[in-house]
Write a structure and sequence with these properties.
Layout lengths: L1 H30 L21 H7 L1 H28 L2 H4 L2 H12 L3 H10 L3 H10 L6 H53 L5 H51 L11
């Protein structure tokens, strides 16, 4: 996670520096006097690209640049958490079929110790839940159920915490965009308060406000969609895991552990 955020920050800094160089070059070219072949001064070119994305970032000031860096960081975090959830929130990862088959075989033989060893050899959410039950087999079926329920709640919370970060990014990005919008509108009204406004400066301030809003929403909309998608997938897998766990431990009602 730290490496992703560092990489995003570095790329954002390089991007902003390149934007600054590009904007400065355009301003110098716009201020320069063009001379025709016969030595007469030509008309100054119009700066049609002054309202572009690069110019908006540079003209937004230190606070605006910080906001854009925060938005780039939020975008990087969204990609990281989305990939992480795509890897970890899967049925094969949470409840592997090999574990289910090995535990089922061990329980059919009545060998609880072997089933516990199978769980320890393949660590994971379901293995941790089953291990909690098998570790208390000598204390009775009621204690087994209670241990499994506690372990299931813990594993469920850990799975959902991964998804919570997507929700955090999805809620934070529009707020950053809104802050940039407020900054742009404040600058726009400050320009109007000075008297006859410079149309170019006023348009630049409004562009900054709209760009930051669009940037925040561009990050937030996919985050919200991915969050609810993975949350539904996780809920379905958790229900399947609980049902499978109950099916695997039902034979423990009649198991007696004999101490040597």
């Amino acid at each position: 996670m730290k490496m992703v955020l560092k990489l995003t920050l570095v790329l954002a800094l390089v991007f902003v520096m390149s934007c600054a160089c590009n904007s400065q070059a355009q301003e110098e070219a716009a201020r320069g006097d063009l001379v025709t072949a016969d030595g007469t001064a030509a008309a100054a070119p119009t700066n049609k690209g002054s309202g572009g994305f690069f110019s908006v970032i540079i003209a937004s000031g230190p606070l605006g640049v910080m906001l854009w860096l925060a938005l780039f960081g939020a975008a990087g975090a969204a990609v990281y958490f989305s990939v992480d959830c795509a890897i970890t929130v899967r049925a094969k990862r949470i409840m592997p079929q090999e574990l289910i088959e090995s535990v089922t075989e061990s329980m059919a033989e009545g060998d609880v110790l072997k089933a516990l060893q199978n769980c320890e050899s393949e660590p994971g959410p379901m293995a941790n839940i089953l291990s909690a039950g098998f570790s208390h087999v000598e204390e009775g079926y009621d204690v087994i159920q209670e241990s499994i329920s506690t372990a299931a709640d813990l594993e469920t919370e850990q799975i959902m915490q991964k998804l919570t970060w997507l929700s955090v990014v999805g809620n934070l990005a529009p707020m950053l965009g809104l802050l940039g919008t407020v900054q742009g509108m404040i600058a726009a009204f400050s320009t109007l308060a000075e008297g006859a406004p410079d149309v170019g400066v006023l348009a630049m301030n409004i562009s900054q406000a709209l760009f930051t809003t669009a940037g925040g929403l561009t990050i937030a909309v996919p985050c919200v969609a991915v969050y609810y998608t993975f949350r539904n997938i996780a809920s379905k897998i958790i229900l399947q895991m609980e049902a499978m766990t109950i099916e695997l431990i039902k034979d423990l009602r009649n198991v007696e552990v004999v101490e040597e």
